[in-house]
Amino acid sequence: MPTCAFCPLTGADCKYSDPNARVIDVSSPCNKVLKAGSLCPAQTLVVQRPVAELWYKPWPANDTHFLRVRITPTLQAARVTLYLRVSMRHLAASCDLVMLPPAAAAIPQDQQGFAVEAFDVINVTALSHGIAFVTSPADGAAVGQTIAVKGTLSSLAPGQRAFLVTRSTAFGRRFFPIKEIAPDAAGRWAMDAQYATPGYSYETLVVATQNPASAQALSSQANRVNGLTALPDETAIISPVLRVRRR
């Protein structure tokens, strides 16, 4: 079998550190926030976002290991997404891997191309520029194709515009801007949103921007149909992110 550099074999990469992510507690001395990942067979991949790894070999049956990291987001980053996975090799130097979670069409991938479990963390400090909540549907609800989404909005900065956005957890995790939010005097708003594909999960969130070009992108009918691969420049998520499942 081809040699696999999936796990670092030396501590050379431990000279690297990232100012916004660091390991704070771990069950193995073999750990670090890395500047490069790897693929099988051996290929080095320079990562675009920090990767915190713990590796332990051999890993006897019934042993437990853990990794805790501290992440310091920028003020503008209202949400940080954590991608988690476990990879084990059957043999010491092979690419015969057992992956958790296993690859599937509806599961997102990390920048190394592996299936991951995705978890969103809200940065409350970043919400100070405007705070929104989606009050209906409830987080985890099963929904039909078209439903009424309701919520509240307050404290927008001058010139800031807010939009309801959904995001598919499959098909490239595209953002679909629904409509600009126009709250009533009490800060309440409601609008219809579509969740297209039965069986798939969708995120529902509110974003805001003061950038005219970004507001135009979020208002575009074409983007409402085709989606955006990323949020436009200077656009912040200002609500908790709800996840619903299309029944």
Please tell me about this protein's structure.
The structure is a single chain. The protein is mainly beta and 247 residues long. The chain has two helices and 17 strands. The strands form six sheets. Strands 10, 12, 13, 15, 16 and 17 form a six-stranded mixed beta sheet that branches.
Topology:
Layout: E1 21-26, E2 31-39, E3 43-54, E4 67-71, E5 79-84, E6 86-89, E7 97-100, E8 117-122, E9 131-136, E10 142-143, E11 146-154, E12 161-168, E13 175-180, E14 188-194, E15 201-209, H1 212-219, H2 221-226, E16 235-237, E17 242-246
Parallel strand pairs: 10-17
Antiparallel strand pairs: 1-4, 2-3, 5-8, 6-7, 9-11, 11-14, 12-13, 12-15, 15-16, 15-17
- How much helix is in the residues? under 10%
The average pLDDT score comes to: 78
pLDDT < 50 stretches: 1-17
Backbone structural class:
mainly beta
Gyration radius (Cα, Å) is 21 Å
Largest sheet: 6 strands, mixed
How many separate helices?
Answer: 2
For the record, give the distance between the C-alpha atoms at the N and C termini, rounded to a whole number. Answer: 44 Å
Percent strand: 35-45%
Short characterization:
With 247 residues, the protein is mainly beta. The protein has helices at 212-219, 221-226, and strands at 21-26, 31-39, 43-54, 67-71, 79-84, 86-89, 97-100, 117-122, 131-136, 142-143, 146-154, 161-168, 175-180, 188-194, 201-209, 235-237, 242-246. The strands form 6 sheets. Strands 10, 12, 13, 15, 16 and 17 form a 6-stranded mixed β-sheet that branches. Strands 9-11-14 form a 3-stranded antiparallel β-sheet, with no helix packed on it. A two-stranded antiparallel ribbon has the order 1-4.
